[in-house]
Amino acid sequence: MGIISLSCRECGTDYDLGAHYVCTRCFGPLEARYDHDHLRGDIAELRRRIQAGPQNIWRYADFLPLAGGQPGPSARASSRAGLPAGCTPLIRADRLAERLGLGEVWVKNDAANPTHSFKDRVVSVAAARARELGFEVLACASTGNLANSVAAHAAALGMESYVFIPADLEEQKILATGVYGTNLVKVRGTYDDVNRLCTELSGERDWAFVNVNLRPYYAEGSKTIAYEVAEQLGWRTPDRVVAPVASGSLYTKLEKGFKEWLALGLIDGDVPVMHGAQAAGCSPVAQAFAAGHDVCRPVRPDTIAKSLAIGNPADGPYAVELARRTGGSVEAVSDDEVRDGIRLLAETTGVFTETAAARTSASCS
Ligand SMILES: Cc1ncc(COP(=O)(O)O)c(C=O)c1O
Ligand SMILES: [Zn+2]
User: Which residues surround ligand 2, an ion (CB under 5 A)?
Assistant: First the structure.
């Protein structure tokens, strides 16, 4: 089996596996639903199968939303071709742990992906599903990293691409996106304006907007970080996770990944305590968490951490709920703390990251 439907997170209505993302009954977001019964039973065999899989996210194909179902040579050769993502290093960071006064800290270095962020995971999944659904054009609304990834994946697959970004993004990011030969559209406005424009365009054009009409498939790619971390830790969950939060998709899907594997008995442990990190200059989720609300009031971003500058986060309420349910938190850190976080991580681990990742080390200190 594998994926069986797209299901509304609010009212549970099921939809077919097309390019839908919103429930027509209640406007709730749609999420991939699976049947994993065929994977129950011989856990040692399932672990062996995963370990014998490719050195990229497709080793977790049983848990990803492609209609191909079981990974077979032909399915892999067609839909799953393109730019491989995942299988990035999990680094034991003892010097960072010491500086933070913590017992054991590991850093998942997703800058080792082809375009240097975890977005290659979500785009790999969305692009593969876009091809299965017959789309010829890949598109996205981006705060920077997604634009790079969509442009690169489209190039690798020989697809046309359109990426929409706020006009004030960092020059280096814009340059990096342009090199892949995409159609780069700068929009005068915030990411939330860009996202609104793309939502309208997705109704008019026959394009696969990875984070709009293909969002339920795209979001599933983030689960592969949870699978990898668990596999790299020796088939167990970490006690705590600290992750950056923009739309809240990565943060919430990490938990989904751990839960799926715990339910199958594939890993030992419990759902980790989940901590999220935002920049004070754009922290609607942290503000809602601190104030005890469920609703994230939209904000206008003002921060150097442009890749996380989403003022109206699609998965914000689910992120707040997750932090509370697991006894975690969503914290906001200042731009100075983000700069210090970049330095701290680099000095103690040798990993030089951009602002989004530095947020997580800043929020630990
Ligand atoms: C490097 C990096 N990490 C994390 C995120 C958070 O993504 P999400 O929208 O899934 O919360 C982003 C978003 O752009 C990002 O660029
Ligand atoms: Zn609904």
Answer: 8, 10-11, 13, 23, 25-26, 28
In tens, the pLDDT along 20-29 reads 999 999 999 9
Q: Whose CA is nearest to atom 9 of ligand 1?
A: 247
Q: Is 249 in the pocket of ligand 1 (CB under 6 A)?
A: yes
Percent pLDDT > 70 in the chain is 94
What percent of the chain shows pLDDT beyond 90? Answer: 82
Range of the domain at 197: 119-218
* Ligand 1 centroid, distance to 39 Cα (angstroms): 31
Is the full-model pTM beyond 0.85? yes
Tell me whether residue 62 is in a domain: no
Q: Is residue 110 part of a domain?
A: yes
**Is 56 in contact with 120 (CB distance < 8 Å)?**
no
- Of the three residues 218, 251, 280, the one that is the final residue of a domain is 218
pLDDT at 60 over 50: yes
Residue type, 236: R
What is 75-135 written as a DSSP string?
A: HHHHTT-S-------EEE-HHHHHHHT-S--EEE-GGGSTTSSTHHHHHHHHHHHHHHTT-
Do 146 and 278 belong together in one domain?
no
> Are 214 and 239 found together in one domain?
no
Give, using CA atoms, the residue closest to atom 15 of ligand 1: 307
Q: How is residue 24 written in tokens?
A: 């027509």
